[in-house]
Amino acid sequence: MNLPQPGDYIDIHNHDSRPEEGVFILDNLMAHEETLPGNEKGMIHSLGIHPWFLNETNHDVLIDFVRQNVSDISIAAIGEAGFDKLKGPAMDLQNRTFAEQVAISEETGKPLVIHCVKAWDELMAAHKRVNPQMPWLIHGFRGKKELAMQLISRNMYISFWFDFIVRPEATMLVRSLPVNRIFLETDGSGADIREIYRTVADDLGISVDSLRDQIRSNFEGLLLL
Ligand SMILES: [Zn+2]
């Protein structure tokens, strides 16, 4: 599997990525797109069913697609999977499909990348029920400190929403969380991951170099390397 090199900026969640010098990307493949994983330099992939694109009709096809491709060497994680109460099918189907992807994550020993909108109770309940061996990573986080700490207390990792984390009001949040539990991402926005690192390093009062080292160490924790 491709791994980040010392000094790389790790972008822990992106879509439709292209290799970029000095950046290491966990690129997300959504099963409904039926894109097969490549083995591009500086990139690995997650593969899963995004709740927005799930329905009763396509469920079986999507879960089969994940199962058939999950063993590919370039698939490092399962997801993004999860819950969305604003956009997506009935919670019953979302719950069932999430549980299936949790099982795949546990069976394959690959961590789970999570999309969660207004369904934190469901997410916490699922985590308590399964008590998974594999780490879960919440991507696109823009909640409060209390919620972040609740997730971290269950051994989850947090990646911040690219647009939220560079705002002045995010400074206190990022300072109050354990730095060994955080990640940064661009999520297909075209934002510059280097800029995001610069802002967060400033917020933390550390150098960009130390932040990159820290996040590479977090990455090793996430993938149980
Ligand atoms: Zn995404």
What does this structure look like?
The protein is α/β, with parallel strands linked by helices and 225 residues long. It has a single domain (31-222), classed as Metal-dependent hydrolases (TIM Barrel, Alpha-Beta Barrel), CATH 3.20.20. Helix content is 36%, strand content 21%. An 8-stranded parallel beta sheet has the order 1-2-3-4-5-6-7-8. Helix 6 (193-204) crosses helix 7 (208-222). It is globular. Zinc ion (ZN) is lined by residues 13, 15, 28, 80, 187. Zinc ion is lined by residues 13, 15, 28, 80, 187.
Key structural traits:
single chain; about 220 residues; alpha/beta; TIM Barrel; eight-stranded parallel beta sheet; about 35% helix; binds zinc ion
Quick recap of the structure?
The chain has 225 residues and is α/β, with parallel strands linked by helices.
Q: Strand tally, please?
A: 8
Instruction: Outline the low-pLDDT stretches.
Output: none
Architecture per CATH nomenclature, i.e. the level-2 architecture:
Alpha-Beta Barrel
Bound small molecules, deduplicated: zinc ion
Global morphology: globular
Rounded to an integer in angstroms, the radius of gyration calculated over CA atoms is 16 Å
Strand order of the largest sheet: 1-2-3-4-5-6-7-8
Q: Report the major sheet.
A: 8 strands, parallel
Percent strand: 15-25%
Our measurement of the CA-to-CA distance between the termini, rounded to an integer number of angstroms, reads: 11 Å
